Amino acid sequence: RQRWLAAAMVCAALVMSHTSSVPLPAKSPPGSPVENSPAPPTCGSCFGAEDAAKGIKCCTSCADVQRAYKEKSWAWPGNNNVEACKGEPEAATALAPVSPQSVSAQRNPDVPCGSHLSCDNCRANACAWCIASRRCVEDKPWMCTGEDDHIGNIGTVKSCPTRAEVNSKRVARREEEDKARAERKVMSEEDQELCRKRAEDKLSAKQQEELQRLRTEDSSTDSASGGPTEANHAEIRRRAAAVGQAQTDPYGVLELDAEAQMTAIRKAYRRLSLQLHPDKIKDTELKALAQTAFMDLVAAYEVLGDPEKRAAYDNMGGQDQAQFNTFWEWEQYGKGENSAHDFYNGNKLISKLTEKLWPRRVVGDAIWLVEFYAPWCSACGTFVEPYKAVAKKLEEDHIEVGAVNCAKEKTLCSEHFAVTSYPMIMMVGSAERGTQQIYSQKESKTADSLVTWARQVAEEWTWLYASAVLEPLNTDAAFDQVVLSSKMLWFVVFTDGVYCGQCRTAMTNALRLSAGVAGMAKVGVVNCEEDSAQALCYERARLPAPPHAPEVRIFKSGAKHAAAAPGYMGEVLYNPNDIQPHVALRLAELVARNALNHELPPSSVASSGGKGEYDSGATGDEDKQPPPPRRPEPMWNGPDAESLPKGIAWGGGGGGAGHRNMIGGR
Fold first, then answer.
1. What is the average pLDDT across 279-301?
2. Torsion angle (degrees, nearest 10) of CA 10, 11, 12, 18
3. Which of 392, 389, 350, 356 is nearest to 370 (CA)?
């Protein structure tokens, strides 16, 4: 029944989008959150603070409500957010009030918690806000993923954070990390000499091992790939003269930048090691120089070929990089930090990811398979060997493999990626792409199952990156020019930044939507965390104050500019508490594709939906360039059904009028 209702909702929105006139501002139905709340009854609600055990069954005045909140040691939401207290002096309370950011705070205690779409509205109604999942729940234990994720009277966090507070917290945390590094115990001269000698012995043994290994390896495959099998003489002399650069600039030795992925590092080492191997050189003098250059190359790869060692090198910052190997030995075997709880220490195929390393590693079009785990989780310990097998099987794929220790990286796991259970497996793209796909906890976690799934996701994402378009709309000018001045049907995703699990999932599904409606409609994205988008999001679109869930709006086809439609800002496509977002977007794509197929040339009606297949639809466009590879099967993703809060009952007429924000003709 819910699916049919959802389909009806989307169809109605799309049909409306074809009208040439702008709809009049809709009058909110009775009970709507944006309608004026009724006056409180004579002995009515205590706004969530009722407690029969303490004799608090109802409240007759503002003072009663304040006393009820004080009895429960709850944060006071502010008089303006409680209808019975509007206009009266603020209550004297030692608890922090809810931040007054909401544009239209809801104050009706009879509206279910799940209907509130922002933290401020949620807290103003005595509910709790789950940071990771961006949803409002009852203020009870175990409703969110932990006390740090739970904003409410149950737990330690009482009020919603402001954007400034979030940024301040991040700055303070990084300052503490820098301070901790600066205060590390300095190595004694004896420790330093011992570690230096151990590092040199290990490196020398590795260099000789690589020299012998490549001496017997057939390099014909490298020749077949088109790359040179021998470096030119000038390059060999240059590298020999710069010997020691492996310690100070290993990236330069491997001819890579600091953002290179592990796959690129392995390929660069293989190519250069075959070019610089001294056995390829006939000239005696040049052979000796080539051996020097080759040894330096091996030394560089010893630093960058191990994800953990590479991370330590990158983290040294302004310290003496020439002493890195000595420092590394001390960290691992001397007086350094204890890393016993990191499952994948020393594994060269699995990168240990941290909040600080994330923006350096997960960049561009790189596609990552990431495990989020906790050391105390027995299932995580059991999964270590299968995950290592996965990394081995994906060694030659264009998929990077990483792991995050959630006991150490709470921000990554809770705020950024909404980890709800361990181990959690995800495919993740860069902040620029904003993609994310979660491996269902119901599926088997065998190595073969995970590898098959990861390759399917990577194939689809690679196609989407090349074929789908999400128009960036982060300024008022861009939005007006691109969306409101267009006569096409538009879907626009408003996100609360890219470090938000729900926002990433919405952007991934928006890419699929874009591919499906290419040539018929367009899809854009507004990053509301950007300074340039603040007015567009919170003044014109009147989104809830951050933190909030992503919001998708549909903008009708036809004239939408200011002269034809004053103040028009589209309509909300769905309420995430009424229908799962990925189901709503999939339905929107299906309906749009079938309703608008007359706008495509006949040859494209049965097509799979690629950007290159449609273009403008003009005759002959298909001959301008070869068509892209056929679109892989879309992998619409969202949370497992059992992990979601119970859906809100639809109102009598099936519209859920009392629980949904209506945008109407604004």
1. 84
2. 110
3. 350
List Cβ<8 Å contacts ≥24 apart for 344-347.
Answer: 344/308, 344/384, 344/387, 344/388, 344/403, 345/308, 346/306, 346/308, 347/307, 347/308, 347/388, 347/391
Residue 405: which region, alpha, beta or left (left: phi > 0; alpha: psi -120 to 50)? beta
Instruction: Return the bridge partners of 130, or none.
Output: 135, 150
41 near 108, Cβ under 8 Å? no
Tokens of 305: 């070929």
Q: Half-sphere exposure (CA, 13 Å, Cβ side) for 51? A: 13
Q: In Å, what is the CA distance from 121 to each residue of 288, 431, 453?
A: 73, 28, 39
Q: Using CB atoms within 10 Å of the CB of residue 461, give its burial: 0 to 12 exposed, 13 to 18 middle, 19+ buried.
A: buried
How far, in Å, are 25, 34, 61, 340, 601 from residue 656 at the CA level? 18, 14, 31, 52, 39
- Name the band, by pLDDT with cuts 50, 70 and 90, for residue 175: low
Q: In which residue are the tokens 């919603």 written?
A: 160
Q: What's the rounded Cα separation, in Å, for the pair 507 and 428?
A: 12
Residue 40 tokens read as 């409180």
Residue 18 has pLDDT above 90, yes or no: no
25-74 pLDDT per residue, tens = 344 444 444 444 444 445 777 766 677 667 777 888 888 888 877 776 66
Output b/e per residue, 172-203; b: 16+ Cβ within 10 A: eeeeeeeeeeeeeeebeeebbebbbebbeeeb
* pLDDT tens per residue, range 586-595: 898 889 888 8
Summary mean pLDDT of the chain? 73
Is residue 402 within a helix (H) or strand (E), and if so which, with residue range?
A: strand 400-405
CA–CA gap between residue 217 and residue 189 (Å, rounded): 42
Structural Rg of the chain based on CA atoms: 29
* Maximum alpha-carbon separation in the chain: 102
Percent of the chain with pLDDT over 90: 17
At residue 655's C-alpha, the angle toward residues 650 and 658, to 5°, is 75
Q: Is 408 helix (H, G, I), strand (E, B) or coil?
A: coil
For 179-210, the DSSP string reads HHHHTSPPPPHHHHHHHHHHHHHHHHHHHHHH
- State yes or no: pLDDT of 158 exceeds 50: yes
What amino acid is encoded at 593 in this protein?
R
Q: 480 phi and psi, to 5 degrees?
A: -65, -45
In Å, how far from its chain's centre is CA 491? 20
At residue 109 the predicted structure's pLDDT band, cuts being 50, 70 and 90, is low
In this prediction the pTM is 0.60
| pLDDT score of 217 more than 60 | yes
| Collapsed DSSP state (helix, strand, coil) of residue 493 | strand
